[in-house]
Design brief:
Layout lengths: L4 E10 L4 E11 L4 E5 L6 H8 L7 E6 L2 E2 L5 H7 E4 L10 H6 L14 H10 L16 H13 L5 E5 L7 H16 L5 E5 L3 H6 L3 E6 L2 E6 L2
Parallel strand pairs: 3-8, 3-9, 6-7, 7-8
Antiparallel strand pairs: 1-2, 1-4, 4-5, 9-10
Helix pairs in contact: 5-6
Protein name: ATP-binding cassette domain-containing protein
GO molecular function: ATP binding; ATP hydrolysis activity
Keywords: ATP-binding, Nucleotide-binding, Transport
């Protein structure tokens, strides 16, 4: 079985400032991997994750998905399987349910439909009851908003989650709700994988089996926490 994602000499450069943001990086994410990346602010953690998500185009190098290079026309399909979650969720006006139904209005998901039972199960993992669906998105706390954003992604059954400090702005209880959702998603299919960028070393140890360190754009090797 080929790796889910592989990078070969991947770089990102800020041409305006003439600054290397990501040094040439070789990396492999296999089925079943739980990876954490820690490092100081500005070390390149988010740069690497956004490049993997193809949100910011790499300056040079290659990203392979299931052993194949990703053509421009395949990027929307790639993004439907490789999902990026930031620490600042962006929700729409309306209810929680409106937000969870929204992805199915997009062309790339027109053949799929909202599954209320699956969403209710996901809510349960985060300690939320079904009536949470009727809450107004504008009234949610930061932790509740992140739970909604995560469920909106998880209901689509991604292969890979790229988690960019998703609990950095949350209180401990909300952070555990997010962690519980990730654990439940990961346990549901042994072929899934995730990368969790975290500023919290305890969380990184708790939520990963492979720990990497980013320093000045250099991704340093794996250790077993």
């Amino acid at each position: 079985m080929s790796a889910l994602i592989e990078t070969r000499a991947l770089t990102r450069r800020d041409e305006r400032r003439q600054l290397a943001l990501l040094q040439p990086t070789d990396f492999t994410l296999n089925h079943g991997d739980r990876v954490s990346i820690t490092g100081s602010s500005g070390s390149g953690k988010s740069v690497f994750l956004r490049a993997l998500a193809l949100l910011d185009a790499p300056t040079s190098g290659q990203i392979l998905w299931n052993g194949q290079a990703i053509a421009n026309a395949e990027i929307p399909h790639y993004r439907s399987h490789i999902s990026y979650l930031s620490q600042r969720p962006a929700l729409l006006e309306g209810t929680v349910e409106d937000n969870l139904r929204f992805p199915f209005s997009l062309n790339t998901l027109r053949t799929r439909s909202f599954d209320l039972q699956a969403v209710t199960t996901l809510l349960g993992h985060a300690g939320k009851t079904p009536d949470f669906l009727q809450k107004n998105a504008g009234d949610l706390s930061g932790g509740e908003s992140q739970v909604v954003s995560l469920i909106r992604t998880l209901q689509l059954n991604p292969e890979v989650l790229l988690l960019d400090e998703p609990t950095a702005a949350l209180d401990p209880t909300s952070s555990r709700d997010v962690e519980a959702l990730i654990d439940a998603w990961f346990a549901g299919d042994g072929s899934r994988a995730y990368i969790w960028v975290s500023h919290d070393l305890d969380q990184a140890q708790r939520m990963s089996a492979i720990h990497l360190q980013m320093n000045a754009g250099v991704l340093n090797g794996a250790t077993q926490p």
